[in-house]
Amino acid sequence: MLRESKSFFAIVLGLFISASILFASEETELSPDAVLLDKLVEKNLISEAEARECKKNIAEQPVITSPNLNKIHFGGYSQWRYYSMWQDYNSPSASGKISENDFSMPRLVIKVFADLQDDITSIMALNLAAPEVFDTYFIRKKVDGEFLKGILDVGYSAPDFHMESTNGGRLRTLDRCILNTYWGGKDMGFDEYDYSSNAKQCFSGNHMGVFWQGKFPFDERFFYNISIANAKGAYYWETHRDIGVSYWGSLGYATVSEDLDLKCGINFGYSSNLFSVYDTTCGGEKECSCLGVCPYLIMQYKNFYLHTESVVSNMEYGKILSDDKPIYTTKSDDTLPYGIMVMVGYAIDIGSWGKLEPLFRFSYLYTDGGGVAEGNVLAKANSPNGYYNRAFAYYGGLNWYLNSYYTKVMLGVEHLRFSDSPTRSYAKSGVVNMVGLQLQLEY
After folding, report:
1. How far apart are CA 21 and CA 68, in angstroms?
2. Which of 85, 82, 127 lies closest to 104, judged by CA?
3. pLDDT category, 356, cuts 50, 70, 90?
4. Cα–Cα 20 to 30 A to 101, which of 133, 160, 224, 424?
5. Which parts of 91-199 are beta strand (E)?
């Protein structure tokens, strides 16, 4: 499958670059031989009629100028991380400890920007460190009419729901919070063997569709977003399993001044086919609907940074029926999970050495019986004790920005606590402690 994905990537990249060069070189001009013909007429070496005939032939066969390669831009970043992780878990059926130390490369991202026209750009992002490589691709059109202003993206991109940056290079923490990973990620569909499903709700992350970011003409500080895309957010080679559609909408306010950068609003998401459960009436797969809401506030006031958001959703057939496996059927009750995240930081200028930013983040998740495991919300974590009903996460870090948000050193410590059985059958708990040191380089 990885070989097939890389072959697909190579084909798409080739088409992308070819189209970019084609659009970049769309202007044509006549051959300079036409000027030489005028000189020959002046020297009486050919007649004016002969010159006109030659010019006519030249005009009918224009020569395309050389491609303007300056209209294709490349960039990206790489992340190198060393981490240590310790896990404790306890329940009537199992208890133990797990530790792990490893060196990893979370992201090796290459970005390609092609200016197809003055107001049309093609953007592709590839993560060579990920199994799915092909990360993002869309065509962007800027619209600046009297009543319609904004940006239209068509392709494989991320709608607005969670507001922790969709750009992994701009994250202020080693990993996104547990809310983002619980309501995000990718869904690989329904397992007919043991009737298990993916517990993620797929409102965040990349989807294939149309994404509009609009501004109100009466005051461009007020904005609205509308997105229509495939429901499950599966890997692009699995989209044939996804015939559902999801809808997102946003209303918000944003302003930027010398001291203040403020953005606040509320995001909505709805899908009739977010993930699948086992149909106990007629067997097979049953599609489930979900409605989610996420209000947020993001503020940078001078050196102080604040980001807070909360999420609540209504999930059809969302209650898990097992503490050990993600078993959901049409006998499952609906759930109303919710969560909250608060992150604060303060940047300290250290002159030619850049900036230091101490940072703290708290997040809380209550699944209302939906279930969450350690590996669902934290990269590299194991899930030895099945599923829990709630989770707390505390993150403390220190970021050293060398010359931008893309070139930095990050030191982070995170403590996560999982508790309660989602089926309320018995008491259980789990603890994860993680320390990580990451270097990110921009190119």
Report:
1. 7
2. 82
3. very high
4. 133
5. 95-104, 108-117, 120-127, 134-144, 149-157
